[in-house]
Amino acid sequence: MEPAVLVLNQNYEPLNVCAARRAFILVDRGKAEVVEHGDGALRSASFAFPLPSVIRMVYLIRRPRPQVRLTRREVFQRDRYTCQYCGKQARDLTLDHVIP
Question: For labelling alongside 76, which of 12, 33, 55, 65 has CA 20 to 30 A away?
Fold first, then answer.
């Protein structure tokens, strides 16, 4: 079994876990840099390269953020059908019963 390597985004946000050989290829092509070396080495006929345990991408990979729906039902589910101000339960709730 090949060792796993943690892949971080440019801003050190965790992205993925990949195989050590894939991580070595990313570092060799200049797409990532090694943050921390692990145990072991990748060996060839004349060289032994230390295997990374954590790499960081040199460019930012934009990941889509989940969109939160703001419907009446979602608000009630989020609050467990209880008003956060007065503590009323489901049958007495409306979204706008608190007047500032």
Answer: 65
Q: Alpha carbon 47 to chain centroid distance?
A: 34
Nearest-angstrom CA–CA distance, 5 and 3: 7
Q: Which pLDDT tens digit goes with each residue over 51-76? A: 899 999 999 999 888 887 788 888 88
Residue-wise pLDDT tens digits, 13-66: 999 999 988 998 999 999 999 999 988 888 888 888 888 999 999 999 998 888
Rounded CA separation 14/8 (Å): 4
Strands 14-19 and 4-8: antiparallel
Alpha-carbon torsion 57, 62, 63, 68, what sign?
A: positive
